[in-house]
Specification:
single chain, about 10% strand, Tol-Pal_TolA, membrane, Cell envelope integrity protein TolA, transmembrane, transmembrane helix
Length: about 325
């Protein structure tokens, strides 16, 4: 169906009419709302919520049942009506005095003045006179002088206390130093005694070793030298090698092993080998050879007469 110009005109007219009706309804609504505007009051609005009493819990119903009765505020008493004050009468003029005749005649001579005695104590007044400005300055100066004296005395006492404390600390330090010196002396004395005991034990072991070496075989290198010096040399070698040796568990105490040591003058070891007879196992033989190398330089000073480059030593297993 084709739309004509008349249909378009009719649609425009209807649209305009519809808008006019809508504007009229809006104006009527605004007019109605303006007449029914509530009064605006200051403060936040009051909100309330209706709650069914039967829907509350048992404690809430009990609390509502036991709530106190509202207290009625007492009404203020009416103020009494003001009473009209009486107006005072105006002041009357004072009458002038009228001279009267004296009953007694006036005296011809003046009466002597009798001073009244002062009941205050004059001594107290003299002892505490009112201070003058100069006396006040003297008093302040005296106070300052006394404060300076007190300060000087306080400083003197503090200095004396400081010196006494320093003297006590110095005395305590001296006592501690004396105690430390005493402990060191006791330790040195104990070490000296221990060293003497060790020396005695070493001498005894050396003597025993020399006896055993003499009984087992003739001392090595006995070609006209001093036999006692040779024995001491063997004991010294035994002790120095023993000090560097840790005995294996497989080597029994008292077992012997022959060592062939090649050395230079001064005790430097060139080689150390185990020779037969030797009661040590492989581990013991290697350990004694290592001990000889660790013990160098071997004893030399004092044993020059019995020194030999190739030395045969009969070593005995002992604990250090």
């Amino acid at each position: 169906m084709r739309e004509t110009r008349a249909d378009t005109r009719q649609a425009v007219v209807l649209a305009i009419g519809l808008h006019i009706v809508l504007f009229a309804l809006m104006f009527a609504g605004l007019w109605w709302t303006r007449s029914a505007v509530p009064v605006s009051a200051a403060g936040s609005p009051i909100e309330a919520t209706l709650v069914d009493a039967n829907a509350l819990s048992a404690p809430m119903r009990e609390a509502l049942r036991d709530r106190p009765e509202p207290v009625v505020e007492p009404q203020p008493e009416p103020l009494p009506e003001p009473v009209e004050e009486e107006v005072a009468p105006p002041p009357q003029p004072i009458p002038e005095p009228v001279p009267e005749d004296a009953p007694t005649p006036p005296q011809q001579q003046a009466q002597d003045f009798i001073p009244e005695p002062d009941t205050r104590e004059q001594d107290e007044v003299v002892d505490a006179p009112t201070p003058t400005p100069s006396d006040e300055e003297k008093l302040q100066e005296e106070k300052r002088r006394q404060a300076q004296v007190d300060l000087t005395e306080k400083k003197r006492q503090e200095e004396a206390e400081r010196k006494r404390r320093l003297a006590a600390e110095a005395e305590a330090r001296q006592a501690k130093l004396a105690e430390i010196r005493k402990k060191r002396a006791d330790a040195a004395r104990a070490a000296e005694l221990a060293e003497q005991k060790l020396q005695q034990i070493a001498d005894a072991r050396a003597a025993q070793s020399s006896d055993n070496a003499s009984a087992a075989s003739p001392p090595p290198g006995n070609y006209g030298g001093d036999t006692g010096l040779q024995a001491r040399y063997a004991a010294a070698l035994q002790e120095v090698i023993l000090s560097k040796w840790t005995r294996p568990e497989t080597v029994p105490l008292g077992s012997r092993c022959t060592l062939v040591i090649k050395q230079l003058p001064g005790g430097e070891v060139m080689s150390a080998e185990v020779s037969s007879p030797c009661a040590y196992d492989e581990m013991g033989q290697r350990s004694i050879e290592a001990a000889v190398l660790k013990a160098q330089p071997l004893p030399y000073a004092g044993f020059e007469k019995v020194f030999r480059r190739t030395l045969i030593l009969n070593f005995e297993a002992r604990d250090r």
